[in-house]
Amino acid sequence: MTYSMKVVARKAGLTPHAIRVWEKRYGAISPARTTTNRRSYSDEDVRRLILLAKATRAGYSIGRIAQLSTERLASIVRAEEAGAPEPTRDVQANPSSSGSEVQLEEALAAVQSMDAASLERVFARASVTLSLPALFDQLVVPLMVRLGDLWREGKLRVAHEHMATSMVRTILGDLLRGTDAADTAPGIIVAAPAGQAHEIGALMVAATAASEGWRVTYLGPNLPAEEIAGAAEQTHARAVALSIVYPSDDARLPSEIDRLRRYLSDEVALLVGGRSAGTYSATLDASRAVLIPDLPALRIQLERLRALA
């Protein structure tokens, strides 16, 4: 049997991004390639990735175990599961290194030093040691907030923020592509409306909805109401989610939201979140939109909507 990246990621409990980093940077596996140059994974590749994932969650550094034999990895995992870890001189478990607070500080330091390789390693490790909700709530969101604050205080250059944004965009895109919702799953359109150029928030919403089992259509930033409504109708979406980050005083945005609500069917829920969403609360109330303060609230709302479907 051979498996695609999407199937392997699901079996191993890893993100496609983590698997690519482990392959390219650490040489942990060497998958075959199809005639169209897509990765093709064997049963042995899958077993090895599962063992690597379990070992890293137990605190072992991927850099120190990537080259170990599969049998050695299996021995480490068996010992951990039996409650008797067997660290050696060259393979040390360090559970504290997987803490989200440590990873946040490491990510921030990597951005400040413009070290893209180190930032990629932090995200790859976090995508293994943290669940998807924790990855967003404890690393991605706090990092972007901290970077925004430092930029406004004049302590970071625009280039620092752009480097981090580019990396986060790639990781979130991989997470979104790695999901596979059923055709019968409720559909949701995710976008940032016209005038909103920041898309990290929208990507986090899309990946969160996909992880909750929704069939996601991601449209990206700066999209007019007519296009969003058209996509919702064509895909028979149950909900539309908008991300509003900056600016917080766009005079055109209220009319965009009002037009979108008029274009949408009454059965389609309109969910609006993001750092600046609360400043448009009067518009949201008039449009019968649900203000989503954070990702945990989004998960709750998606669960409610799914129960009503």
Kindly list the characteristics that best describe this protein.
single chain, 309 residues, alpha/beta, Multidrug-efflux Transporter Regulator, Chain: A, Domain 2, Methyltransferase, Methionine Synthase (B12-binding Domains), Chain A, domain 1, Rossmann fold, 3 domains, 5-stranded parallel sheet, 14 helices, globular
Summed up, the domain count is 3
The CATH C-level class name of the largest domain: Alpha Beta
Number of H/I helices: 14
Strand content: 5-15%
Q: Share of helix among residues?
A: 55-70%
Radius of gyration: 21 Å
N-to-C SSE string, H for helix and E for strand: EHHEEHHHHHHHEHEHEHEHEH
- Classify the secondary structure makeup into a structural class: alpha/beta
The largest sheet is:
5 strands, parallel
Mean model confidence by pLDDT: 87
CATH topology of the largest domain: Rossmann fold
- What is the fourth-level CATH superfamily of the largest domain? Cobalamin-binding domain
Low-confidence stretches are: 94-98
